[in-house]
Design brief:
The structure holds 3 protein chains of 3 kinds. In chain A, 82% of the residues lie in helices and 0% in strands. By secondary structure, chain A is mainly alpha-helical. In chain A, helix 3 runs antiparallel to helix 4 and helix 4 runs antiparallel to helix 6. Chain B is mainly α. Chain B is globular and about 70 Å long. Chain C is mainly α. Chain C folds into 2 domains: 65 residues; 29 residues. Chain C contains 4 helices and no strands. The chains are: A mainly alpha, B mainly alpha, C mainly alpha. Chains in contact: A-B, A-C, B-C. At the A-C interface, helix 1, helix 3 and helix 7 of A face helix 2, helix 3 and helix 4 of C.
Chain lengths: 200, 541, 99
């Protein structure tokens, strides 16, 4: 309706950052809940953490860190008008993101196989603190997984737009903003790794 | 600046100029003014549904009408009344209606930073509203937990809590997106020369509100999400049977829901700060003090949440800290009240309906605010916790405060929004029943609370009956006043006289453009050279 | 208000591939340290969590998310957010820790 053309890249980035603020607080709420419960049940959380497969957690960290790198490099490539390279880098990110999800899937199914899932008969026999630990584990990694899927969907659109030149050297704000989102997903995982796999 | 529309006038934003016409033109608009009106119409509808439910709840307390509803329905009614009034009316109220309509105009911009996102926020709002309505008729029936959805009852009840909670989640999304839009708009879209301290105070209020929306809403989003996950998968975080802790629910819920109170009241205070200088014909007293008090209310107000939980079994340390912080937050609120009163002092007061409602706001807000400080004291709180005193108190703040300020803002900006003027006599006539009824109803509730009447009870003991009758009769007066008020305004949109561009003699930017404003607000973006409340006669007495 | 177009007129400002690859290597190294610490003892693991994890997140924010190249508004936004979360955390623990 209001037909004026208005372009403000800095404003768009600011808007994106403000959106990321809400994401940070969303997960922040969960982290606060985690600390609250961990303070109440230190021994149970330690025992729960032993059940998790730290190797898979670390591998997934490396996968996500690398996918973050390829996104940021694809922006450099677009800035330098290296379209083919930008597309290759973005595709790598998508591949790594999927790898992350597959590894996560194996991890979850192993837990299900051992009867460690909310409301399971086996979990009900464990001490209350461990039930809460696994409740938090599934909630937080699950919500993070949803964000990974959202990020991958957005990045697929970006790949398409790079291919069709909607994103190019003089106009790449959408790629930058999607990249910001993907990095935030990475940062959240950076915190999840020690909370559940290493220091619990 | 008054010469901006001297040549051929642009068509007003109410005229369809695009390819679409009629309802479709409204539903696909990205014009901030039309979106503001979409919010206005939808919110007023929800408001009257909420009022209707409130009226029936008062009738139930007259024993004669007790048979009207069952106890279970009564539980559902106070839940739905709360959900509608809070999530669909007061939280989005002023920012979504007047923030959308006037923020860009007040800072000299053609629209907000993200117009399409703005429309999306309205659709999220409507989607949330529809889900909330659906939750009443589907699943196990209307939720009966109270609007606070306290665990563990909300985890166990057979009623349709999941959908109602999801509705609140979606509404939170709408609120956050509006917040993102406003912050970016204020940072990026100010007209040349519009420094931070040349912005009208409404903008400061909206800016601080937007920050609370951003920093607090996600917390309630995750909390409500956890309730849904708990109900579907039994993750056990709030469930004491599985080692969870209902107190964690209360903490997380109030980390948002107390700041939400400031989301509700800050824009109301902003509107009052616009209205008073216009009718006192002098600059606002203590501009910076009011601007900074908005920011500090937003800051300190986010740190007082646990005063809702004084009887929940928190640690003594937390009780003391939160009691102290609660007292502290009264300071910036009082700063505002003193500045408003000082603005009126020695002004050449032009008494008009918006000023009457603004003064009503100050009076009722002071009662609401001071009873709030009372409850911040631990010993008193234990006595009146979960009684009608609380109900009376928050209606003074939310309805007497935000509600009256919303009415004042509506009266103030109505001629600008619609280009029509309402009957001032009819508005004065609506004020008397509204004011008398309001005080009978809610002061009556506070007395009942002091006597020991608990909130949310379907029946009451005989000794409370007289006050209940007084309160119920008050509710009839209140509704009578509301009906006259809105009938007057609706009549005016159709048959009102044409309003002047500047009927009140205001000096902020919205009064320099035609009523109703053209599609792009300004022909030429104005250059600002002075502060917002610059009255000539004050400069040369 | 239109200081946005500068970044397009002067592409020289943009950091190259090298910077980011360097940061990535540093991130991998820090992850290695974190894992190593967690094998030493529980105490070390918690210390690693409290120091190395924020450092890693900081590196991602500062370089990958281009915070280094943005104006002060962006940095203030992040600091306000983190500060708010920290205060929420502290106030919540005024309850839990003293119960």
């Amino acid at each position: 309706m209001s037909g004026h053309v208005h372009r403000d890249d800095l404003g768009s980035r600011l808007g994106m950052w403000l959106f990321l603020v809400t994401e940070m607080v969303l997960f922040g709420g969960l982290f606060i809940g985690y600390s609250y419960m961990r303070y109440r049940y230190p021994a149970e959380f330690h025992h729960g953490g032993m059940e998790l497969n730290a190797t898979l957690g670390v591998i997934n960290t490396l996968v996500l860190l690398t996918s973050s790198l390829t996104v940021v490099l694809s922006i450099v490539a677009v800035q330098r008008a290296e379209k083919q390279r930008a597309m290759a880098l973005l595709s790598t990110t998508l591949g790594l993101g999927l790898t992350f999800l597959v590894i996560k899937g194996f991890e979850w199914s192993a837990k299900f196989h051992h009867g460690l899932y909310p409301n399971s008969a086996h979990l009900a026999t464990l001490p209350p603190g461990e039930q809460v630990f696994f409740g938090l584990y599934f909630t937080m990694t699950g919500l993070h997984g949803v964000h990974v899927i959202a990020g991958l969907s957005v990045l697929s659109v970006m790949l398409w737009w790079v291919a069709t030149d909607r994103i190019r050297q003089d106009r790449y704000i959408h790629l930058e903003n999607s990249g910001l989102y993907w990095h935030l997903v990475d940062v959240i995982w950076i915190f999840l790794l020690p909370l559940f796999y290493l220091a619990a | 600046m008054s010469g901006t529309h001297a040549t051929t006038p642009e068509p007003s934003y109410l005229v369809d100029t695009g390819t679409r016409t009629g309802v479709m033109a409204w539903l696909t608009t990205t014009d901030h003014k039309r979106i503001g009106l979409l919010y206005l119409y939808s919110m007023m509808t929800f408001f009257f549904v909420g009022v209707g439910i409130g009226l029936v709840m008062r009738l139930v307390q007259l024993t004669t009408f007790q048979k009207l509803v069952t106890a279970q329905t009564y539980n559902a009614m106070f839940t739905v009344h709360g959900v509608i009034m809070i999530f669909l009316f007061v939280v989005p109220g002023l920012p979504a209606i007047f923030g959308n309509f006037f923020l860009p105009i007040l800072i000299g911009a053609k629209d907000v930073s993200f117009p399409r996102l703005n429309l999306a926020s309205w659709y999220f709002f409507i989607a949330g509203a529809i889900l909330a309505v659906l939750s009443l008729f589907t699943g196990g029936g209307a939720p009966d937990t109270g609007w606070t959805f306290y665990a563990p009852f909300s985890l166990k009840t057979g009623t349709n809590v999941s959908l109602a909670v999801f509705a609140a989640f979606v509404l939170g999304f709408s609120s956050m997106l509006t917040g993102i839009n406003f912050i970016t708009t204020i940072h990026r879209m100010r007209a040349p020369g519009m420094h931070w301290f040349r912005m009208p105070l409404m903008c400061w209020a909206l800016y601080s509100t937007a920050w609370i929306q951003l920093l607090a809403t996600p917390i309630v989003a995750i909390t409500l999400l956890l309730v849904i996950l708990e109900r579907f998968f039994g993750i056990g975080i709030f469930d004491p049977a599985k080692g969870g802790d209902p107190l964690l629910y209360q903490h997380l819920f109030w980390i948002y829901s107390h700041p939400a109170v400031y989301i509700m009241i800050l824009p109301a205070m902003g509107a009052i700060s616009e209205i008073l200088p216009t009718f006192a014909k002098r600059p606002i007293f203590g501009y910076k003090a009011i601007a900074f008090s908005s920011m500090s209310i937003a800051g300190v107000g986010s740190l007082v949440w646990a005063h809702h939980m004084f009887t929940s079994g928190m640690s003594g340390m937390a009780l003391m800290i939160f009691s102290l912080l609660t007292m502290v937050v009264a300071v910036p609120s009082a700063i505002k009240v003193f500045n408003w009163v000082s603005t009126l002092y020695k002004g050449s007061i032009d008494f008009q309906p918006p000023l009457l409602f603004a003064l009503t706001f100050i009076f009722l807000f002071c009662i609401g605010g001071l009873t709030g400080v009372m409850q911040g004291a631990l010993a008193i709180n234990v006595h009146i916790h979960d009684t009608y005193f609380i109900v009376g108190h928050f209606h003074y703040v939310m309805f007497g405060g935000t509600g009256m300020a919303l009415f004042a803002a509506l009266l103030y900006w109505f001629p600008k929004m619609f280009g029509k003027m309402y009957s001032k006599k009819a508005i004065y006539a609506s004020w008397f029943p509204m004011f008398i009824g309001f005080n009978m109803l809610y002061f009556g509730m506070m007395i009942l609370g002091m006597m020991g009447m608990p909130r949310r009870y379907y029946v009451h003991l005989p000794q409370f009956h007289t006050m209940h009758v007084i309160a119920t009769v008050g509710s009839w007066f209140l509704v009578l006043g509301l009906v006259i008020f809105f009938a007057t305004l609706i009549y005016a949109t159709f048959k009102g006289e044409k309003a002047e561009d500047n009927p009140w003699g205001g000096v902020t930017l919205e009064w320099t453009i035609p009523s109703p404003p053209p599609l792009e607000n300004f022909d030429v973006i104005p250059t600002i050279t002075r502060g917002p409340y610059h009255f000539e006669q004050e400069e040369h007495p | 208000m239109n200081d946005t177009l500068h970044s397009h007129e002067a592409p020289i400002e943009h950091p190259g591939y090298g910077t980011f690859i360097g940061v990535w290597l540093l991130l991998l190294l820090l992850t290695g340290c974190l894992v190593g610490l967690s094998h030493v003892s529980q105490t070390y693991a918690v210390w690693g969590l409290m120091t190395l994890t924020p450092l890693k997140a900081g590196l991602v924010f500062y370089y990958f998310m281009h915070l280094k190249y943005e104006g002060p508004v962006f940095k203030i936004v992040i600091l306000v957010t983190l500060g708010t979360l920290l205060i929420f955390f502290a106030l919540l623990f005024s309850d839990v820790a003293f119960r």
